[in-house]
Amino acid sequence: MQNPSKPSVADRSDPAFAFDEAALIRAIRLLTDPGDGRGNGTLNRLAGAGFPEVGLPEGGMGEMAALETLAPLVVGGARDLGTVHGFDHMDPPTPWVTWVTALWDAALNQNLLHPDVAPVARQIEARVVDWLTPFFGMGGGHMTPGSTIANLTALWAAREIAGVETVVHSKAAHLSVPKSAHLLGLRAVAAEILADGGIDPAALPGEMAKAALVLTAGTTNHGAIDALGLAGRAAWTHVDAAWAGPLRLSKRYGSLLDGIEWADSVAVSAHKWLYQPKESGLVLFRDNAAAERAVSFGGSYLALPNVGVLGSHGAVAVPLLATLMAWGREGVARRIDRGMADAAALHAWLSERSDVAVYGPPTTGVFLWRPHHRQPEAVRASLPVGTASLTRIDGRSWLRQVAANPMAEVAELKRAIDRALTA
Ligand SMILES: Cc1ncc(COP(=O)(O)O)c(C=O)c1O
How far does the centroid of ligand 1 lie from the alpha carbon of residue 312, in Å? Predict the structure, then answer.
C-alpha cells in the first residue's frame, strides 16, 4: 500500500509523468543499441520522421517512438569519450552511477532555490561541499554548472568584499576569466607567461591593492600550474583549478597544488576530472559566510536568500555524491593517477622521437606536441577520432593531449600516432 501523503512516481494519473518500468528499460537499452547504426546522426532524420525543419508539429508521436527516432541521432551521433583512443579534451566519460542518479534528478526535478521543493537535495549539496572543501583548505562553497560560473562568482565576491577593480591573470588563463571581468565591469590585465605556460611573477603589476589575482592550476593549453606561492600578493587571490583541482584528492600528486589553501576562492569543474555529467562544478571560499553574504539576493517569494549566480538549479550534487560514495577518495585518485601516468608515458615516448617537438612537461596530464615536417592538422586527420585535439599558440598549431579518460590505452595511442607520423 502506498502512503497517500507520499505518492510514488508510479501512481501519477498522467502516464507521461509516471514510472513505466518496461518503457524505461527499453529506453535505457537504446543507449547501447540505438538502432540504424552509427553515422545516421544528422537532423535530416527528424524530417524523415515527419518533423520538418520549421514549424512545431501539432501532434506528437508518443514517447517511445520519439526516443527510438532520436536514439540513432543522439546516441549514434555522439562521440564515445571512453574509447582506448580518447585523449584529447577535458571531457571524461561518466561512470554509470551518475547515469542513474542523473535520471533520478530529471525525474524528481528538485529546485535548490526553494527548500520546499528540495528538502534533501540542499543537504546533499552541503555534504558534498563539506567533503571536498578540506582538500583545498577552504571553508565552504556551493555548486555551479562549471568553472565559468565558479570563476564569475568568485570574482563577484572579490569585487564586493575586497573592492577589487582589476583582475590580473596570465595570458594562458581561461577565457572565462577575462569574460567574468568584463561582465563585472572590472579591468582585465593579462600577464606574460614563462616557457612552461605558468604565469611570470616578474610580469605582475607592482601594485595589486585593488586587484584580484587569478592563478590557474592546470592551464587549458599547457596544463601548467601558476606559482601558487603568489597567493596573497593581491587584495584577493582566486585559483582557477577547473582542471587540476581534483589532483588534491591524489596522495601522489596532491602536493602539486600546495599553496592553494592560501587562496580566497577556488573554482573546480566536477565535470572534468571528477568524471561528472555536465554541468557540475564548485566555487569554494576561504570565508564562505562572508562570500555568501556578498553574492546573495533575497526576494519576497524566497524562504532563503538566493546565493550565487543561478536562480532555479538542480541537484547536480546527487551524481557527485553517488560517485564519491561508490569510489571513495581512493577510487577517484586511482583514476586520476592513471591519467597522469598515461600522459607521462606518452610524453616520454614522444620526447624520444626525432620527428616531433614536444611542449611539456605534462604537469597535470596535459601536454602539446607537433610534427617537425607535417602540419598538425594533417596528422590529426589521420589519427583515430579523439586521439588529440588542436590548439594554437603564438600563431602555430599544436596537437594537444588531455588525460581525462581512464580507459585510454597508451599502447594504442602510440600505435595510432606512429602510424599517422610514418604514413
Ligand atoms: C583552466 C580552466 N578554467 C575554466 C574553464 C571553464 O570551465 P567550465 O568549462 O567548467 O565552465 C576551463 C575549461 O576548459 C579551464 O580549462
Answer: 22
